[in-house]
Amino acid sequence: MRPASDALIVIDVQNDFCPGGALAVEKGDQVVAPINAMIDDYPVRVLTQDWHPADHTSFATSHVGGEPFSLTRMPYGPQVLWPAHCVQGSAGAAFHPDLRTDPADLILRKGFRPGIDSYSAFFENDQSTPTGLQGYLRSRGVASLTLVGLATDFCVAWSALDAARLGFVVTVELTACRAIDLDGSLAGSLEQMRAAGVTLVGSG
Q1: Would the pLDDT of 13 be above 80?
Q2: Is 12 marked active-site?
Q3: Which residue in 18, 110, 153, 177 is the catalytic one?
Q4: Residue 91: how many CB atoms within 10 A of its CB?
Q5: pLDDT category, 183, cuts 50, 70, 90?
């Protein structure tokens, strides 16, 4: 068991991000086994869950002529328009059936505000509206985080960068992550994480 100040943050290991899902990450289901093997080593365990209303503004279907994976501008900045995914209460929003969820101390749902997306586990995409995770971790005495899950170049990376900015010691275990890699986004996100002092372990 790791020190009491260590937490494992499992990002969005949900059906829609796994093969066959609405926004499938290639080999996304391969993160499940390594995460299951790691989870008992951490005294604090948090699972995040993308949890969108059906009319979420990040969905291409919410925009006339909107094309999936195109870029638009929102009041809070650039926003990729995604295929509708992880709709509240849907099978796609459920955790992968083989993921061990019982050990979780906290399940944090994000992206539930219709007008703003939420990649990071800590803030909405305006980078100022908090999810409450920082306060939870601080109240548990957590200082060091290991991040795993989906997808490396979006929700994992944004979470890692925010965590580093907030003063946590951050590691991303890449063997338990997989990426979308949209127009070179994986390489860019890895470089950003390194520059922010995030420790990258292994490869996805």
Answers
A1: yes
A2: yes
A3: 110
A4: 11
A5: confident
